[in-house]
Amino acid sequence: MFGAFRPTSFVSGGLLWKNPWRLSPTRKANQRKRLKRVDDVISMVAESGVTTRSLVKALALPTEAEMSPRGKLKCLRLRLARCMQVVYGQRREYKYTTFSKRDPGYRKSQHKVPKWTRLTLRENPKGF
């Protein structure tokens, strides 16, 4: 077993590609930057006056600010100096997860999708 023909980790059944089960804060920050850059490009093309079908589809997608995981909070002052939080926008998990019909909760983390940095993962099926 030791020598020129010793088994590699792949042959032994070890993990070949190590992929964390959760997105790190750095990867989340990079994802937010990526979404903002795409939104900027879409708005610049829309301002130029060009109209195409792909631009209409892109404008229909939610922006990065609308996909905020915390939502936009609006504070309403009450009598006892309490603050009631009203959350607007999409649900919390939409920014970093995508629809998956094979997962138990029908959601899976974006970084589990092949080539997830190059895909538009902002759309979800109706009802999910």
Automatic annotation (TrEMBL):
Its main location: mitochondrion. One of its GO terms (molecular function) is structural constituent of ribosome. One of its GO terms (cellular component) is mitochondrial large ribosomal subunit. GO terms for biological process: mitochondrial translation. The keyword Ribosomal protein applies. Keywords: Mitochondrion, Ribonucleoprotein, Ribosomal protein. InterPro entries: Ribosomal_mL60 (IPR016340). The keyword Mitochondrion applies. It is found in: Mitochondrion. It holds the Pfam family L31. Component of the mitochondrial large ribosomal subunit. This is Large ribosomal subunit protein mL60. It comes from Cryptococcus deneoformans (strain JEC21 / ATCC MYA-565) (Cryptococcus neoformans var. neoformans serotype D).
